[in-house]
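Researcher: I'd like a candidate sequence for this fold, 166 residues long. If you have to choose between options at a position, lean toward the conservative one.
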Protein backbone atom coordinates (compact mmCIF):
# COMPACT_ATOMS: atom_id res chain seq x y z
CA UNK A 1 0.00 0.00 0.00
CA UNK A 2 1.34 3.40 -0.95
CA UNK A 3 2.66 5.60 1.80
CA UNK A 4 0.03 8.13 2.89
CA UNK A 5 1.17 11.64 2.01
CA UNK A 6 0.81 12.81 5.64
CA UNK A 7 3.06 9.97 6.83
CA UNK A 8 5.58 10.67 4.08
CA UNK A 9 5.62 14.34 5.11
CA UNK A 10 6.04 13.69 8.83
CA UNK A 11 8.79 11.11 8.22
CA UNK A 12 10.56 13.61 6.01
CA UNK A 13 10.33 16.19 8.80
CA UNK A 14 11.90 13.64 11.14
CA UNK A 15 14.70 13.06 8.62
CA UNK A 16 15.64 16.71 8.99
CA UNK A 17 15.86 16.29 12.78
CA UNK A 18 18.06 13.20 12.49
CA UNK A 19 20.46 14.74 9.95
CA UNK A 20 20.49 17.91 12.04
CA UNK A 21 21.38 15.86 15.15
CA UNK A 22 24.26 14.28 13.18
CA UNK A 23 25.67 17.77 12.58
CA UNK A 24 24.91 19.13 16.07
CA UNK A 25 26.75 16.21 17.67
CA UNK A 26 29.66 16.58 15.27
CA UNK A 27 29.84 20.22 16.39
CA UNK A 28 29.87 19.10 20.03
CA UNK A 29 32.62 16.56 19.26
CA UNK A 30 34.70 19.37 17.78
CA UNK A 31 34.01 21.63 20.78
CA UNK A 32 35.05 18.96 23.29
CA UNK A 33 38.09 17.98 21.27
CA UNK A 34 39.30 21.58 21.31
CA UNK A 35 38.62 21.73 25.07
CA UNK A 36 40.81 18.59 25.47
CA UNK A 37 37.92 16.50 26.72
CA UNK A 38 38.79 13.64 24.39
CA UNK A 39 36.34 11.20 25.98
CA UNK A 40 33.35 13.50 25.50
CA UNK A 41 34.61 14.18 21.96
CA UNK A 42 34.67 10.44 21.21
CA UNK A 43 31.18 10.09 22.65
CA UNK A 44 29.69 12.83 20.47
CA UNK A 45 31.54 11.58 17.41
CA UNK A 46 29.88 8.21 17.98
CA UNK A 47 26.48 9.81 18.57
CA UNK A 48 26.89 11.79 15.36
CA UNK A 49 27.44 8.56 13.38
CA UNK A 50 24.44 6.98 15.08
CA UNK A 51 22.20 9.88 14.12
CA UNK A 52 23.19 9.34 10.49
CA UNK A 53 22.11 5.70 10.76
CA UNK A 54 18.78 6.87 12.24
CA UNK A 55 18.29 9.21 9.29
CA UNK A 56 19.19 6.43 6.84
CA UNK A 57 16.67 4.08 8.44
CA UNK A 58 13.99 6.62 7.55
CA UNK A 59 15.39 7.14 4.04
CA UNK A 60 15.34 3.38 3.44
CA UNK A 61 11.85 2.99 4.87
CA UNK A 62 10.37 5.76 2.74
CA UNK A 63 12.02 4.19 -0.33
CA UNK A 64 10.73 0.73 0.62
CA UNK A 65 7.21 2.17 0.69
CA UNK A 66 7.60 3.84 -2.70
CA UNK A 67 7.85 7.35 -1.29
CA UNK A 68 10.36 10.13 -1.84
CA UNK A 69 12.85 10.87 0.91
CA UNK A 70 13.78 14.51 0.85
CA UNK A 71 17.36 15.08 1.96
CA UNK A 72 17.67 18.42 3.69
CA UNK A 73 20.42 20.99 3.40
CA UNK A 74 21.76 20.84 6.93
CA UNK A 75 22.79 23.94 8.79
CA UNK A 76 26.41 24.34 9.89
CA UNK A 77 26.62 23.20 13.50
CA UNK A 78 27.62 25.33 16.45
CA UNK A 79 31.15 24.43 17.56
CA UNK A 80 31.50 26.87 20.45
CA UNK A 81 29.68 26.36 23.72
CA UNK A 82 30.01 28.43 26.87
CA UNK A 83 30.71 25.33 28.94
CA UNK A 84 30.43 21.55 29.05
CA UNK A 85 27.19 22.00 31.03
CA UNK A 86 25.73 24.08 28.20
CA UNK A 87 26.74 21.50 25.58
CA UNK A 88 25.29 18.54 27.49
CA UNK A 89 22.07 20.40 28.23
CA UNK A 90 21.80 21.23 24.53
CA UNK A 91 22.23 17.51 23.74
CA UNK A 92 19.43 16.68 26.19
CA UNK A 93 17.12 19.27 24.64
CA UNK A 94 17.93 17.83 21.23
CA UNK A 95 17.02 14.32 22.28
CA UNK A 96 13.76 15.51 23.86
CA UNK A 97 12.88 17.26 20.61
CA UNK A 98 13.72 14.11 18.68
CA UNK A 99 11.44 12.06 20.89
CA UNK A 100 8.62 14.55 20.31
CA UNK A 101 9.25 14.21 16.56
CA UNK A 102 9.06 10.41 16.71
CA UNK A 103 5.81 10.60 18.70
CA UNK A 104 4.40 12.93 16.07
CA UNK A 105 5.33 10.39 13.37
CA UNK A 106 3.64 7.67 15.38
CA UNK A 107 0.47 9.68 15.96
CA UNK A 108 0.22 10.44 12.23
CA UNK A 109 0.74 6.79 11.25
CA UNK A 110 -1.93 5.70 13.76
CA UNK A 111 -4.36 8.34 12.55
CA UNK A 112 -4.20 7.14 8.93
CA UNK A 113 -4.18 3.48 10.00
CA UNK A 114 -0.70 2.57 8.72
CA UNK A 115 0.43 -0.43 10.81
CA UNK A 116 3.69 -0.90 8.86
CA UNK A 117 4.88 2.57 9.82
CA UNK A 118 3.67 2.12 13.40
CA UNK A 119 5.74 -1.07 13.54
CA UNK A 120 8.83 0.55 11.97
CA UNK A 121 8.65 3.41 14.50
CA UNK A 122 8.74 1.04 17.49
CA UNK A 123 12.53 0.80 17.05
CA UNK A 124 12.77 4.59 17.33
CA UNK A 125 10.48 4.73 20.37
CA UNK A 126 12.79 2.33 22.24
CA UNK A 127 15.91 4.04 20.96
CA UNK A 128 14.68 7.41 22.25
CA UNK A 129 14.31 5.98 25.75
CA UNK A 130 18.01 5.10 25.63
CA UNK A 131 18.96 8.39 24.02
CA UNK A 132 17.17 10.49 26.63
CA UNK A 133 18.61 8.31 29.39
CA UNK A 134 22.26 8.97 28.56
CA UNK A 135 21.59 12.62 27.74
CA UNK A 136 19.81 13.17 31.07
CA UNK A 137 22.43 11.29 33.10
CA UNK A 138 25.40 12.97 31.46
CA UNK A 139 23.86 16.44 31.71
CA UNK A 140 23.05 15.97 35.42
CA UNK A 141 26.51 14.55 36.16
CA UNK A 142 28.33 17.39 34.44
CA UNK A 143 26.14 19.88 36.31
CA UNK A 144 27.18 18.25 39.58
CA UNK A 145 30.93 18.11 38.94
CA UNK A 146 31.69 20.98 36.56
CA UNK A 147 33.53 22.95 39.25
CA UNK A 148 36.01 20.12 39.78
CA UNK A 149 38.56 19.83 37.00
CA UNK A 150 39.68 16.48 38.38
CA UNK A 151 36.12 15.20 38.49
CA UNK A 152 35.48 16.42 34.95
CA UNK A 153 38.55 14.65 33.55
CA UNK A 154 37.66 11.49 35.42
CA UNK A 155 34.16 11.54 33.97
CA UNK A 156 35.54 12.39 30.52
CA UNK A 157 37.78 9.32 30.79
CA UNK A 158 34.84 7.11 31.74
CA UNK A 159 32.62 8.41 28.95
CA UNK A 160 35.47 7.87 26.48
CA UNK A 161 35.66 4.23 27.52
CA UNK A 162 31.93 3.82 27.02
CA UNK A 163 32.24 5.45 23.58
CA UNK A 164 34.98 2.99 22.62
CA UNK A 165 33.01 0.04 24.02
CA UNK A 166 35.61 -0.72 26.73
FE1 LIG B 1 18.13 9.90 16.45
FE2 LIG B 1 19.44 10.74 19.21
O1 LIG B 1 17.92 10.48 18.16
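Model: Candidate sequence:
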Amino acid sequence: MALHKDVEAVLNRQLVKEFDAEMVYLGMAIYFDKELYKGFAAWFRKQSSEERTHAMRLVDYILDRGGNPIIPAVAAPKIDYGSAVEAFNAALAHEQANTAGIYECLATAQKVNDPATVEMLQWFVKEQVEEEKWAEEYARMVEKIHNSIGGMYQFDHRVGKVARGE
